[in-house]
Task: structure prediction
Amino acid sequence: MLIPLLIVGALLVLVIVGAGVFFVVRGDGDDDNEPIATRTTASPSTNSSQQATTSDMSTILKPTISTAQGNTFTRAGVIRNGSCISRADADLLGALRSNACVQNMDSALYSNSTRTIITVVSILKFADATAAAAVSDETSEGANPTLLLPPPGSGLPALTRTPPSWTRSWTRSEYVIYAQGYWASGSDPGSRTGTVFNTAGELGVDVANTLTWAN
Result:
């Protein structure tokens, strides 16, 4: 009689332990739902083996970027590096007087796969997260980097004037990432629910997330 009771008791212990492991695993998976925790996939045509680093923005502003949504963006020209003051419009200059950059602004111009939408991505670094947030908050008031146009030889339409565009910004610690989107034709970029606005957001978020994972 004693042996059957011991066997039953052992089986009950195994069932309880197994159930406990099951619920722990499910709980860990359910908690991992922050979008920024999803690492983006690099395009096979880029230097995918080169780890992103904030000391070399060419590892973040790559020649081609494949976003988490599966769309590919191609850089036109080289990364433009210059002082934040030299690359800021009047409103952004005002914001920079109170919170200055601590290194040059890096910008790159990208086109989507159909070469119909341009998105200019700019990365600015500040002394701390508070300064970065203060400058980013000014985006809604029209504080933007000056808009880059397609360089000669890029194969993109040559624009004779600065086109209307959407500007979006995100903060990642002491960094502010801007994404400025416009139609390659220079026409009206549409509404906040339009293709240009959403495309700029897709690329901007992808770069912001890559910057978060950079060493």
Q: What stands out?
A: Residues 153 and 198 are 27 Å apart (CA to CA).
